[in-house]
């Protein structure tokens, strides 16, 4: 039995079928059967398929009449398939090189999942950059195999049938076939989602889908759009009482509303389509379902109430205003767009500052430190922190905030003189003449950043348009640096006309201002047992891995390192799930708002290549590098210097070596102290506890550079005391 059966319907694409078949036969992984589905013997596509079959015994053509449609062709291929897993490929698409090997490797990792979803590229027919629409959806899923209920946002509704591999026994056991009709992918995706028990994802491109010049046939005008509702009715009937009913309902009706809002797709029967869609909406709406916000929510309510005239009037208003709206910046809501455009014509508010950290994740990092110092030194400045809706509860009492995307959000962005961020503001934010943008960054660069990523394919693909990135850089007036290394690397990575402020990172001020009582308080809040040595383990993100993996058996490390050791686990913020998962001597602090607090609580740091090492070095506490995959990381991510040649402490490459340096005490020995001193002199150059004050005085109060507090020499600084020192 072959590992894969690849089914290729070919109706109407004989001219490109050779490319599709060749892309399969050229795969480095050869355990497959290739099943072209042709109209009839002697047809142009059948001739192409027969020629390939004559050259390669793995090609086994079958036939399905054009009248059976795409669903009939795929079902014919399914009946002929004998492989363990089934894939579908449109006859004018291609498999990416190495994709079958990647699928086999991933399935070996996950075991026999029912469905393995993967990414695909959408390639313009003539010119333009390929896009990867599945990547953001798959990025939010668990790392290993999981049940569909664990990631309800991932369903077959949002992905084409050829963006997944299906276990054939699963399809057979559940008698799954493609439903008849032009929207067969929609019905298939819903039925597969409801039947699957274990799924997984492969975060790499498998199929390269060619966008046709004439667009998708499904989007052409015609009565076939009424059959969309047949698929919706069938899936939601099956989904009754399922834990996934809410997700399927919302996703299916997103498709319905997209069609309903385009009456040109239904030259006749648009009112009938809307009324039937409304009946289905009321029939299948799950208990407790809450419609989305904004204009989409309005459409939901109008559909539910059958208000066809109001719905059509709403669409008419939106269409007549769309041309004007195209000329104003990014805000989604029409009314908000117009307000933002109006506010951009109003004078800047010289006493308004807006702040944002980590794309709205909360009140954190250097923007929070500058915000707090501005309240002290520049109380006349009104300060507004921008946060995502789910971060509102974490904003400290008394801090004014605006929810990202709200009317207030766009209003303050349009009027503020000062804009402070450790990442970048939204693409649609306009850089006004007279406004002052402060980029604080959020770490010292070891890994390649900005345009320096362009030669590293894995990272460059995730970065997106470098032209847009540089457009965002052009908004910066000031860029903060904590050492000369950073200043030089930022100039390379983010070339622009901004001024570098070598003031230190404001978020690191606390490492020199915190008291012993504050250190003790943080340890109590985090649950560090009295008298224990708290080792902060903070691995960085790997661009070449899917999801978060500790990379280390932490319980085994604790057992081998010594009885007094507990581990504070802080994953990269990409993997913050907002809830702790404490087990035994492992305290999960990933969701804790402040990485600075976590560092204060730790007696020592273990990390791989995370920039947290540069910040933690300010505390002059032991640092151990766990570099089990340095060569791979350096080749795939790119680095600015060889960390192995200039580490902040002992370098270990195996779990045994790591445990040993704690067991014998060398993690804090003389050699460790010497390495750390050299590291601190290079990378803690400007961090001295006064960075936020320098920024506020220079930027907000307009004091000249020579008037801001000078940097205190490293030898004269006194870091916050470690808990072990407090005890002794």
Quick description:
The protein is an alpha/beta fold and 728 residues long. 39% of the residues lie in helices and 14% in strands.
Explain what you see.
The protein has 728 residues and is an alpha/beta fold. It is built from 28 helices and 21 strands. An 8-stranded mixed β-sheet has the order 3-2-1-4-7-6-8-5, sandwiched between helices. A 7-stranded parallel β-sheet has the order 11-10-9-12-13-14-15, with helices on both faces. The radius of gyration is 29 Å and the shape is globular.
Which tags fit this structure?
728 residues, alpha/beta, 7-stranded parallel beta sheet
Reconstruct the topology from this structure.
Layout: E1 4-9, H1 14-25, E2 32-38, H2 44-55, E3 62-63, H3 69-80, E4 85-88, E5 94-95, H4 99-110, E6 115-123, H5 135-139, E7 164-167, H6 168-173, H7 184-195, E8 199-210, H8 227-239, H9 245-260, H10 270-284, H11 294-305, H12 308-326, H13 334-344, E9 349-356, H14 365-377, E10 382-387, E11 401-403, H15 407-415, E12 416-421, E13 436-439, H16 457-463, H17 466-473, E14 478-480, H18 484-493, E15 499-501, H19 510-513, H20 516-526, E16 533-538, H21 554-561, E17 565-569, E18 586-588, H22 595-601, E19 604-607, H23 612-616, E20 623-626, H24 630-637, E21 651-652, H25 655-663, H26 670-683, H27 691-700, H28 723-727
Parallel strand pairs: 1-2, 1-4, 2-3, 6-8, 9-10, 9-12, 10-11, 12-13, 13-14, 14-15, 16-17, 16-19, 17-18, 19-20, 20-21
Antiparallel strand pairs: 4-7, 5-8, 6-7
Helix pairs in contact: 1-2, 7-8, 8-9, 8-10, 9-10, 13-15, 14-27, 20-22, 21-25
